[in-house]
Design brief:
About 40% of the residues lie in helices and about 15% in strands. The protein is an alpha/beta fold. Strands 3-2-1-4-5-6-7 form a seven-stranded parallel β-sheet, with helices on both faces.
């Protein structure tokens, strides 16, 4: 029973966006559980700004998920892949009504997720591995300042379900985790408004915002043998925000 709640020996995870706040928490937890990890960031500057630092079994490199050739090349460097985690994402408050910005957000968040899934498909089929896409509470609850982000995360949910059905015959499981309000650099400015911060916290069941580590546990569980019958599902990690 214990083995079902752990990662198999030699487990390797590719964490796209693994240098970000949530991505770093996921990468660290995989390493703590004995896995090796290949993490990515959009560029060298993002790597330098990340709290994630190389350690035994962990590598970090830049990857532009909007570049087909770069994504394909990165996938080919991975000899074994047991899990692909897609958590590269952007948003641009108030600017997403500009068509160029709208398309950029979709290219990173939705098409970028599809690029990496297809690039890693062969390796995941060989290992009978898992994909976990990072969706969002905003796939369900829309916000007026980020229409592209909401649309992209809604797309990630449906992409997850479609790929789960399409790739099950190959032994690939595809699930998603939908975080709620998690304290990250992407919302740091908004959290300076104490009234806003407290209003969000008060709506959750736990009366607090989430932390990146709260998301990481759900992600790693979906890659364990204990979740081997789960595919096409979306796990909400929102502190009960949407329960009421």
């Amino acid at each position: 029973m214990k083995q079902r709640f752990s990662l198999p020996s030699g487990f390797h995870a590719a964490v796209i966006g693994g240098a970000g706040d949530i991505g770093a928490a996921i990468s660290n937890l995989f390493c703590d559980l004995g896995a090796t990890v290949s993490a990515t960031a959009v560029d060298e500057a993002a790597i330098s700004a990340s709290s994630l630092r190389p350690r035994a079994g962990l590598t970090i490199r830049p990857l532009d998920v909007t570049d087909d050739a770069a994504v394909e090349a990165f996938a080919k460097t991975q000899q074994r892949v047991d899990a692909l985690i897609n958590c590269a994402g952007i948003l641009a408050r108030d600017k997403e009504y500009e068509i160029a910005t709208f398309m950029k957000v979709l290219d990173v968040n939705l098409t970028g997720t599809f690029r990496t899934c297809t690039a890693f498909r062969g390796a995941l089929a060989r290992s009978k591995g898992s994909i976990v896409n990072i969706a969002s509470m905003n796939a369900t609850l829309a916000l007026p300042r980020i229409p592209a982000y909401c649309a992209s995360k809604g797309g990630v949910v449906m992409l997850t379900k479609a790929l789960a059905l399409a790739w099950a015959p190959e032994g690939i499981r595809v699930n998603a985790v939908a975080p709620g309000y998690i304290e990250t650099s992407i919302n740091e400015a908004g959290r300076q408004d104490q009234a806003h911060y407290q209003r969000i916290a008060d709506r959750t069941a736990f009366k607090r915002w989430g932390q990146p580590d709260d998301v990481a546990g759900a992600v790693t569980f979906l890659c364990m043998p204990a979740s081997s019958y789960a595919t096409g599902t979306v796990v909400a990690v929102d502190g009960g925000f949407l329960a009421g």
